[in-house]
Structure formats: C-alpha cells, structure tokens
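User: Hello! My lab partner asked me to get a predicted holo structure for this protein. The small molecule is magnesium ion, SMILES included with the sequence. Please write out the structure tokens.
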Amino acid sequence: MALEPRNDATAKTFTGGQILIEALRRQGVDRVYCVPGESYLQVLDALHDAPEIAVVSARHEGAAANMAEADGKLTGRPGICFVTRGPGATHAAVGIHTAFQDSTPMILFIGQVARHARDREGFQEVNFPAMFSPLAKWAAEIDSAARIPEYVARAFRVAMSGRAGPVVLSLPEDMLSEAVQHSAYAERVFPSGAAPRAADIDALVTLLKAASKPLLVVGGTGWDEEACGNLSEFARRNCLPVAASFRRQDLIDNRLENYCGHFTLGADANLTDRLKSADLIVAIGSRLGEITTNGYSLLQPPVPHQALIHIHPDPNELGRVYQPRLAIACGLADFSNALRTVDLGDNEARRSWLRDARAAYVKFSTPPQSSAANYVDLAAIVGWLSDHLPDDALVSNGAGNYTVWVHRYFRYRQPRTELAPTSGAMGYGIPAAIAAKLRYPDREVVAFAGDGCFLMYPGELATAVQHNANLVVLVANNGTYGTIRMHQERRYPGRVVATGLVNPDFVALARSFGAFAERVDSTESFPDAYRRAAGAGRPALLELRLDPAQLSPAFRLPG
Ligand SMILES: Cc1ncc(C[n+]2csc(CCOP(=O)(O)OP(=O)(O)O)c2C)c(N)n1
Ligand SMILES: [Mg+2]
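Assistant: Hello! Below are the structure tokens for the protein in complex with magnesium ion.
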C-alpha cells in the first residue's frame, strides 16, 4: 500500500509510524532488520501493510545491527535497523560503531519514550543523540511526525555522502502515533559526488612518472564494480603494485598480477618493508588507519618520508594524520574514471618492482604443506576454499586469530565479497553472512567464526533457519580466546588468565536449531564435509578442530 500525499482538509490522516515506513519505501528500502519492541509498535503495524519490505527479526540487537551494516556494505545504500530504547539501543551500538569505523551507510531507528516522559529518566530512557554523538555521523530525535520525511531524506543523504557512515534517529513513541496530513516525501536520494580536478590528475601523473617504486594502497568504501574495474585496468596498464588496506582485499582481484598483499595484523614483512621503501604511496580511499599503518609506524606522522598522494571522498580525512604532497578530495567512482586514460609509459624499474612485490605476495599467501596430522590445518582449508568457491562467493568473519589465516590464504576476487569488520568486532561474521545470503540467495556464503566469536551470537542460527539463509558457518575451534592468549604469552609468558574456554558441543547446538552440522577432525575430510554442508538445503555449520597450540600461522605456544 503506497501512501499518497494528501493536501485537502478532508484527507485521511496517517500516523507517524505509517509516514516513516512510506518514507523508507520511497527510498527503495526492501528489507529491515530488527528486534521488536513495544516502543515502536506503530512502525511494526505499518510494516504489516508494506509487503514489499521484508522484516527480519533477529535474536539480539547486536546481530540485527550487524546484519543491517552488512547489507549497507553490500548495496552501498543504508542498511536499516529498528530496535527498542535502552536495552535494545545499547545492544545495537556495536553495529553503529562498526558502520562508523568501516564507513558503511546505515540507519538505526530507536523507539524512544513518549515526549511527555522525556528527561524524567522514564522507563529505558536514554538521550540517544548524546549517547550516539561520537559513534554516528549524525544522531537526532524526531519530534514531530510531520517532519519525518525531512529527517529520513537527510538521514539517507548523510549516511551515503562523502565518507559514508551510520545515522541514528530516535522516535518518541507518542510521535509515532501522532496523526498528520503529511505534505510531501522526498524522492529517492543518491549521494552527490565530486570529481577530481584536471590539475590534480596532471599532478598525480607527474609524480607517478617520476617514481620507480610506487605503491597503490586501496581502501575505504564508495567503490562500485565499475570503479574497481577502472582501478584494476589502470594498475595493469601501468605495471603498478596494489595493496589492500585492512580488510579491503576485495577491491581488486587478488589473482591479478598487480595485487601484492594486505596491510593487516600480522602483515607480510616483505610488504611492510615495501611500503617503507616505496618512493611514492598513492592511497586511494584508504584512511591509512592504525591497523593499515601498523600503529602509524610504517608511515611517520605528520609528514612521511615517502611522497604521499592521498585521495579520499571526505576532505576532513586528508591531512588528518598524514600531510600528503598531493591531496585530492573526490568520489572514488569519479577518481577511477579519470584514471581510464592515464598512461604512464613503460618503465623497467617499475616493472621489476612490481614483479618482486607480486612474487613475495604469492609466496606469502600459498598455504604451506600440511603438518598438523591430528588436527585440521586451517591454512589448507582456506586454500581449498579459495580454489573451489565460485568467484562471486561471499566470505565473512568476525575478530580473532583465525581471521589471519582467512585473510592470508583466501584470494578475494570480486568487489563486495569480503564482509570483515575493520572495527575488529567479534561476532560480526554470522549476522553479516545472514544478511549476505538474504541479499544474494543464489550465491555461496561462508562465515568464519572462532569458538569465542561464534558464541557472541549463536542464537542467530535460529534467524538463519527461520529465513532460509543457507549459509555455511565454519567454527575454528581452538578452545581459547586465542588472540588474547597469544598476546598474554608474548607479554606475560605462562600466566594464563581469562582466555581458556569450555565450549558447548557445537554440532549438537547447531542441530538443535535445525541446521546441518558436522565436526571435521582432519584436513582431508574437509572438502567432502564442505560439499555436504553447502548442499544441505539449510543453514550449516562445520566445527573445525584446530591445534590449540598453533595460535596463528606464525605463532605457536611453547612446549
Ligand atoms: C566484541 C569484542 N570483544 C572482545 C574483543 C577482544 N578480542 C579480540 S580477538 C578475541 C578472541 C577471539 O577468540 P576466538 O573467536 O576463539 O578466535 P581465536 O583468536 O581463538 O582464533 C578477543 C576476546 C573484540 N575484538 N571484540
Ligand atoms: Mg578460539
């Protein structure tokens, strides 16, 4: 049912809840994630009359927010999440934080206490604009139902413009019941872009031509397929090495001869040395954040010794930490479009620099011969998946050392196939994979989780079963919060506190939800187990029994 603008005095009135859903519908929203609450019943009721908007009810608001964030990552338009006040909004905060750090467009709507109860610390009342001000790009409360279309249109624009990010809108309960004859809705909002100036591209070409050891570092959001294609073509044509910033490995096909690795936790020393010894760094879309720069050590703030060209959609990110020689504030689609005609000419020094970088990446990312006979070798398994998953498969993860294997041995190949939180939030992988499977039901979706990570939101297996989101969850079980155990061992050897885990029977647990589940005890049995899981016709989980002493590809506990 579409609500039409009505201006005559006899016109029917609509509630704030109805107006909100109509405003979302007009922005093209086709799915919302939520945990229901009595504070926004009017919205839920309006959704009853909007069959074109799917409603996915999660089991935890943290998961619902992660699902909406992942949907925003996949579509480039804001993922939508609804939660109730105090307890719901505080749970959901993790998804807003991830959307902020990951520059993902997203809108969180929160049912709030009625206006007459405000500032009395009513039941579950929180001042949401204050609470979310450092977490969101914009956080506000809508005080009048008549102004809902204005707030919604602005929220979409803010979420998608410049450096994308999350918006939070608080909805007082009585405002949602207010009956108004609304006047007008905004048409669907698209982010406005800025193109690079011709002089900027000229300056970039001059610096690139003069460099014999240039390195492109790509990252951020706002890339679409065409932009990624233009970037790859530019790199290929001009023999330029391209590295991904933290968890942005899907911006360029890792099989391309120009791809030379990933700046991450436990990055290849060859790559970090290469960054240090490059004579020109071209950072495209990346913020050059703390993980990418290894704690701001690979590049010295405020003026790195390497010449730096920094391209970012938000002018406030340029010179925030590093003062570039050339700063270009523009959209990444426009920027990569401008690269289409750039030809730097042949340069043997550049070609051999690229050859070395690529050879080092291939060496680093090739799984070693399997050695852990009694356990599952995660390197071999990730390598097998890399060789056998379709090119458009989506791979998600949360936080933990298991991700080091995933990022090192998986070759990402298409834009928007990597769902990995740059915020480092545990628990992200499964909700993100559910959102991915709902968005692309015909594509394979694999969620990696550690044993710790999985138990953040195990209940979302119920959401997956309920909505036929047939993902495959791979639980990397090493019986420990392995990352923290590794840090303990390095800093306080032998003094183990809080990192040992007594785990449930993951297979029995998953089966109790109605999922397919098996335990994998050996590397050799993985391919068949994976095929059974992927073909099960329902959500599936494979528990991988890892060597508890091997806490990362490079770190083994002594003894
Ligand atoms: C929500 C959240 N809580 C805590 C942390 C700190 N943390 C980072 S990794 C990690 C352990 C992850 O354990 P597991 O999922 O079992 O993966 P492993 O490191 O063992 O491979 C913890 C507690 C975090 N990043 N996110
Ligand atoms: Mg673990």
